[in-house]
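2024-03-11 09:14:02 INFO receiving multi-entity request
2024-03-11 09:14:02 INFO entity count = two
2024-03-11 09:14:03 INFO echoing inputs for audit
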Amino acid sequence: MATRNINLWAADGYISMPDGFSVYIWGFAPSAGARAQLPAPRIVVNQGDDVKITLVNGLPEATSIVFPGQDNVTVDDGTGPRPVGPRFDGSGNLISLTDFADYPGNPDGNPTVITYSFTAFRPGTYILESGTNPHKQVHMGLYGALVVRPADYDPGVPSRKTAYGENTGTEFDREYLLVVSEIDPELHRAVRLGQPYRIRGYKPRYWTMNGRAAPDTMFPDSAGYLPNQPYSSMIMLEKDEKVLIRYVGAGIENHPLHPHGNHTRVVALDGHLLQNGPYNLSYKRFTVLAEAGQTYDQIYTWSGIGYDQTHPIPTTVPNPRNLAVGDAGWTMWSGSPYLGEKKDIPVGVTSFNELGEYHFMLHSHEEPQITNWGEFPGGMMTMIAVYPEGTLGNAGTLE
Amino acid sequence: MAANVYLWAKNGTISLPGIGPVPFWGFAPSAVGVAQLPGPIIEVFQNDSVQVTLNNNLTTPVSIIFSGQEFTPVPVTDGSGLFLSYNQEAPSGGAFSYNITPNRPGIFLYESGTSPEKQIQMGLYGVMVVRPPGYDPAIPATWTAYGSGTGTEYDVEKILVIGEVDTAMHNAVTAGNPPGTFDPDYFIINGRSYPDSVAPDNNGSQPYSAGIAAATGQRVLLRIINAGFLNHTLRLLGISPRVLAGDSWPLKSASLDATFEKNTITLGSGQSYDLLFTAPSPNQYVIYDRDLNHAVNGNDFPGGIMTVINIANP
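2024-03-11 09:21:47 INFO inference complete, emitting structure
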């Protein structure tokens, strides 16, 4: 099995909300000197890999990473590996849920670079997040996701392109990772200015998927105008495909997520396959409550419900003046028929419903969460785009 | 078997990190004992005829309801039909006896059924443990949560009752004022906020430690029940327990094993889960509320709903 060396720099930075608000964040950066991104750089490893994650602390206070669902995690701060555990001060008071990297210039001369190691012994979807002042640091953005491929994973063999291994009922054609959370700008402002913050006043104004609020959720990966929010939440699929959607609840609220159209089958929780020997415990849901700090793997298939190329969904194409049109050449939604006749596109828009794809929502059913500071639509919402068969190529592969 | 249980509803004070004594209402185990948070653990056997006698030393009527038990509560209404209580009350200075026959093992809340939005928050709640047939406290080999053959054998058992304290409401109610809008400022596990949660058992008004000690290889049964009004999400780091039962309904039967592993679990108000794990290598393992705003005291981490599992060599 391979050794996977991953470096994460704890740093600060800014993210952008659709209404123009800039949010100061603490997060993990993918390279030295880079700004923090939200969520953390995605980590995809294989079952059995020795995973070594080196944390370089560039924040003004100690920070750390906990790996819920991983067992036998060790840490090495230069003195040799030892099991991670909660850290206490000289008086016996807990100061961190796990071993931490201290801040640069700390008066004790503690290490500012530490390496966590574990063997990715079980496939699945896991959260990783700060274990130091987590009531502040996790909210500030020090969170992300870890995906472990099963040992027999082979994307070239359909029966082995799975979330949990061959014959586990988790085959997929495409996969998407949605890390959901919420943002109280007042906390971020207080941290930026070094001011006190009252926890009981927690009041989120933005709800995010992969660090973005709608409609930005639908922009492509690595969109240049969202430099620190690199991950799209747009779900693109073709009819009858098996689509693996991995939810990660990184906030402290519970978010009832559902796609329109079809139900999902929940196949794993917190990286544990819902299978007990002969008993298949997977279950279908229309709405999955993505709860704080937990993960949910689901298989979703859009069945078409009687529609296909020769039987397009009957839709009246609205007047172009009534369409929501992105300024980046990307329309947010179209109302155009699925595989039907296309109409004129607005001036200046170059990729309007290019292939006749059909869009519908995946969103939090707690409707105040699909707003941006009170304005609908926004927040925890994205679109599922159904493409005509054979047109989507390689989209929907996590690297 | 007949089991007679006596509870006294009383005033008392509790201690929370960083603030002085906080008044509360709780159940005491004797006429001379202090009120407790949570109330005394009531331990009975399945199919016992249990009589719980409530003596009310408070100045307001109190009742008890038994969540998860099949009994017939008798609601109390005023002369105009306005609902007053889920169940018959012990008047101030008086007493009332409830008879129940627990017909299944597990852990269950007992709590006030009178102005519960106020009285439960004031502290009038506790846990009743119903032991399965064959359980003998003197013989560890008989220890199971749900009976022999149910896959619920254990070596170490810990009951964790989680909830919240709204100190402003406590002060207001004690002063005879309206309780106000629920806005808790302390988050508790066995009536205590971390670091008090890991202090040993004592004879005071918060007698139950939430600290857990086990030896590597021992089977540890965590019985978590949410007596609060908010949802709480408990997380274990470095341990992935198996969920054996929800609301004391075992997930394993003759025809289906629906137990599942999970390292983080959300409990709605009034819900319970039984979790089982085998103690891993010696170390300290933290359990904390992943609703991170409940793992604080005031504005400071750590605190609130958090405790530590100390695992030592056998």
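2024-03-11 09:21:48 INFO post-check: The longest strand of chain A covers residues 3-16.
2024-03-11 09:21:48 INFO post-check: Chain A touches chain B through 44 residues (CB under 8 Å).
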